[in-house]
Amino acid sequence: MNHIRNFSIIAHIDHGKSTLADRLIQITGVVDARNFQDQILDNMDIERERGITIKSQAIALPYRAADGRDYTLNLIDTPGHVDFTYEVSRSLASCEGVLLLVDAAQGVQAQTLANLYLALENDLAIIPVINKIDLPSADIERVKEQIDAELGLDPETAILCSAKEGTGIEEILEAVVRQIPPPVGDPEAPLAALIFDAKYDAFRGTVIHCRLFAGTLKAGDVIRFHYNDATYRVEEVGRFRLQREKADALRAGEVGYIIAGVKTVSDVRTGDTITHESRPCAAPLPGFKEIKPVVFASIYPIASDDYEDLAVSLEKYKLNDGSFVYEKDSSAALGQGFRCGFLGLLHLDVVQERLEREYDLSIILSVPSVRYHFILKDGASAWVDNPMHYPDPVSVVKSEEPYIRAAMMLPDRYLGAVMKLCMEKRGVNSQMNYLSPGRVELTYEMPLSDVIYDFYDRFKSVTQGYGSFDYDLIDYRESNLVLLDILVNGEKVDALSQIVHRDRARARGVQACDRLKDEIPRQMFKIAIQGAIGGEIVSRSTISAFRKDVTAKCYGGDITRKRKLLEKQKKGKKRMKMIGNVSIPQSAFLAVLKSDTD
Amino acid sequence: MNTENLPGLYLHIPFCRSKCAYCGFYSRTDISRIPDFLKGLRAEMALYRKAFPRFDTVYLGGGTPSVLETPHLEAVLDTVRRHFVIADGAEITVEINPGDLTAEALRTLRALGVNRLTLGCQSFDDAVLAFLGRRHTAGQGRDAILAARAAGFDHLGLDLIYGLPAPGGDPGATFRGWLTTLRTALSFQPEHLSCYQLTLEADTPLAATLALSPLSLPDDDLSARYFLTTSERLEAAGYRHYEVSNFARDDDHRARHNRKYWDHTPYLGLGPAAHSFDGARRWWNPRDLDAWVGALREGVRPIAGEETLTRDQQRLEALFLGLRTREGIDIRAFRRRYGLDLRAERGNEIGQLAAAGLVRSDGGRVSPTRRGLACADFLARFLS
Ligand SMILES: Nc1nc2c(ncn2[C@@H]2O[C@H](COP(=O)(O)OP(=O)(O)OP(=O)(O)O)[C@@H](O)[C@H]2O)c(=O)[nH]1
Ligand code: SF4
Ligand SMILES: [Mg+2]
Prior knowledge:
The complex is a heterodimer.
Chain A: E1 4-10, H1 17-27, H2 45-50, E2 57-64, E3 70-77, H3 85-92, E4 97-103, H4 110-121, E5 125-131, H5 140-149, E6 159-160, H6 169-179, E7 192-201, E8 205-214, E9 216-218, E10 222-225, E11 231-233, E12 236-240, E13 244-247, E14 249-251, E15 255-259, E16 273-276, E17 295-301, H7 307-319, E18 325-331, E19 335-342, H8 345-359, E20 363-365, E21 372-376, E22 381-384, E23 396-411, H9 415-424, E24 428-436, E25 439-447, H10 448-452, H11 455-462, E26 468-479, E27 481-488, E28 491-492, E29 498-501, H12 502-519, E30 527-533, E31 536-543, H13 556-573, E32 576-579, E33 582-585, H14 586-591
Parallel strand pairs in A: 1-3, 1-4, 4-5, 5-6
Antiparallel strand pairs in A: 2-3, 7-8, 7-16, 8-15, 9-14, 10-11, 10-16, 12-13, 12-15, 17-19, 17-20, 18-19, 21-22, 21-23, 23-25, 23-26, 24-25, 27-28, 27-29, 27-30, 30-31, 32-33
Chain B: E1 8-13, H1 34-48, E2 54-62, H2 70-83, E3 85-96, H3 103-111, E4 116-122, H4 126-132, H5 138-150, E5 156-162, H6 171-187, E6 192-197, H7 205-212, H8 220-236, E7 240-243, E8 246-248, H9 256-262, E9 267-270, E10 275-277, E11 281-284, H10 289-297, E12 305-308, H11 311-322, E13 329-330, H12 331-338, H13 342-355, E14 359-360, E15 365-368, H14 370-374, H15 376-383
Parallel strand pairs in B: 1-2, 1-9, 2-3, 3-4, 4-5, 5-6
Antiparallel strand pairs in B: 6-8, 7-8, 10-11, 11-12, 13-15, 14-15
Helix pairs in contact in B: 1-2, 1-10, 6-8, 11-15
The complex binds guanosine-5'-triphosphate, iron/sulfur cluster and magnesium ion.
């Protein structure tokens, strides 16, 4: 086991984790030049298109170190965006150390700190790496000062690196071998394997990703899930190369996969412990902290016939996204669906897109909401994350909404603009702290609902991309809430309702009507859109009927062309939800949350 | 007429004296290649005479058939008759551009059996013609009409274009200009009118010009106003708006050849870029004179692509083509031919369209109203 090193690369978003992983993969020769592509571990389409990592990805690298010995380096590339922190924390549970990357031009950012804390909580060895030193704007000295002052690490141990140009790579590999301890654990002891991820494979059933803390596991063994005592016979074990690579056995300290013909998807839970049926371990492994979703929305199939399909797909999807939670739900306007919890709006966006791509579903998402708290006249307390369950206003004694502490780091030249934005978002109790000349840390307490309402995009735009942002839920505070309903041609569309602060209600109503006017295409009759609070109409807009929609000429070759277009549009039609006799595009439901500024 | 269901013959003459700014048709200006083309056309006819022996409509389009010298036109029509049987009473149409043909040439055409002319007048406003890059003037347009009448043509169609960008930033003036052109056209009492809304074709000089200029084509509301007003004016003048862009003085003067495209009657298209249909299969020639000539030199049919329509595809086409005509779709005939009972399967949708005033559904048909024709593409999407 002395030849194994388990480590993750962690950093703020875009600081170059996946690019560094590329270099490590290349130098250890796991992929030949022909099959190589940039950010090779970002293998989901959605990751490649957006240029960000969404899923942690493990890969085993063979490495002969300067000491002449051969090592297996189990690398995990992690995502940097706040919404995927849960991925990072699960990855860290199977590591003894991390490479903490800091962009030489951007310096320490909010997620650098957040991820450092995660590593410290897990008692991991930390190797600071200053990346992108090739950039003309790189300021290594300043970053070293930040590593010292803001991270509390020894700046002299920081490795200088350009993942892009491949400098510092050998040095990093040597540091991994020397500074990160090998895993401990007895291969002869009873099996204890931690499930940290899983993926459904149509042919093999569930593929379980795990870290062995004790024992040895091979094909033919009978395993038991601690959570529900389900047992399975192992068909195959192996390690992660670029593809899965079958192995004779997995031993304590190793990271790998198990295929055991698990077709009952719900048997597999991330954080659960797997042991041998015949010789179980004494106690389960600690598992993961329960994750609390902060944003909620309902998912409905566009065609109600697809409900069962959606149910099965969500179950499979959840295997591969431990931070996603859901339960049954139904809407008067949209029928049967599921109420889902997400870690943020990007997470929500990603879930929607992955469901559509990986499971070929057409779905509608209702307007996202946070979770509110109400104290009712009869003394009862109600938690409401779904505007459809908004309590009768006359029965409410007190309403509360969640607050967060937003931690922002930015060059001080943007201070004015950011403060203005935070005030607009009902931010209070600001604190400011100069980290170094020209660089400030700013904290605000803000209602979460205002943060999910287009805060992140606007923050990025006012800081021109130089600001970073992180937040923690702090508490619930009293608030004056109302329910804003949207009516389309006089019919209430419950999936478009929002719970909002009374002071904002009118403005939100106006904005929602405007946005819907842009999103809903003209149809054969006039459409009236109204925002209403209680019975009172607070905003309205009108979409006039379309009047001209025909191509002038249709002879010989035009006919084929026209038919092909129609065939294509027929598919697009499926992405519209009929509400009454109005077809509303999928995009309209999320658009309601965006303001006109973007 | 018992000849109603014979196939139609289309000949694509791929030459123009110069290219108009908006044109997306396949045509070229090097008229020195006409002899090559004529030779190819003869060869192509020979390759299809067995498969398509008889026609009851012949249509010379392009391009501009009228760039051909009279002897060439004579030769083309003569070759047609030598290769194929042209039914008695067949409709024989030639597209003419104003300024191209002399009175004498027109008389020859008449003598050759051509019984229908369509004149590409496009507008009776010189500024509009210049904007479109047409080489003739409004005056030449008028002269061409008079010359055609003088040559004895009693079935005359005029092609017109509307919906231009407003150069002075005054769409109202452009709109009024169009009504003036319409009035002028009506003063000649043509038997047929085709009024096309200007569409931007990719890779045309007009598309390039508009991309760089603040000018833009009319929006949805203004387009609708053009469409509906044109329809109202022409119907008030006694014309029947029988297809999205086509008007006939009476039912007998509807374009018989074009109708074949709309009701899945077979047609044979010869010449570069021409399309053909045999009832199930559709194929098309290369949009390239050289490729077309080359294939024919080797004695093979110059086919660039083809498709065989599935029943679903035939049904979809029949639906959108039918909904482009004022007659609309005969529900029983549609069910018999395409296996879909619109009343049973789309009754609810048809009801909605009728309630919105876009179709009428009585007497066993679904027929677009005038407003329905203006959004025929939508009707097809909605009912498909
Ligand atoms: N100049 C320069 N650019 C780099 C270097 N390393 C990464 N980049 C660029 O930085 C951008 C982000 O790189 P990634 O490797 O995707 O960053 P990441 O940390 O994996 O990002 P997330 O996974 O989304 O958190 C890409 O455009 C890279 O090409 C470097 O050493 N120098
Ligand atoms: S005359 Fe007709 S075919 Fe020739 S360029 Fe003009 S519009 Fe096109
Ligand atoms: Mg990445």
